[in-house]
Write a structure and sequence with these properties.
Oligomer: single chain
Number of helices: 2
Number of strands: 0
Structural class: mainly alpha
Radius of gyration: 22 Å
Distance between the termini: 63 Å
């Protein structure tokens, strides 16, 4: 039976921690450069259409029938 390569597993965990730390630092920097409005309201992303828009997009991409019959 093959022996477990603990050094490989440890290296993978270290790489994952480093990746998470870089992602966190990137988000923090992005938040610093793009502060939220002072009135407390958040701006909606431009590409967000809601649940119904997503269902229609999914059906169209799959080549199926439209989400709502006409």
């Amino acid at each position: 039976m093959a022996k477990t390569n603990f050094q490989y597993e440890k290296r993978q965990k270290e790489l994952e921690k480093k990746k998470k730390a870089e992602e966190k630092a990137r988000r923090k920097l992005e938040a610093k450069n793009n502060p939220k409005p002072a009135d407390g309201s958040e701006e909606a992303p431009e590409d967000e259409e809601g649940e119904e828009g997503d269902a229609a997009d999914d059906a169209a991409e799959a080549g199926g029938a439209p989400a709502q019959p006409q």
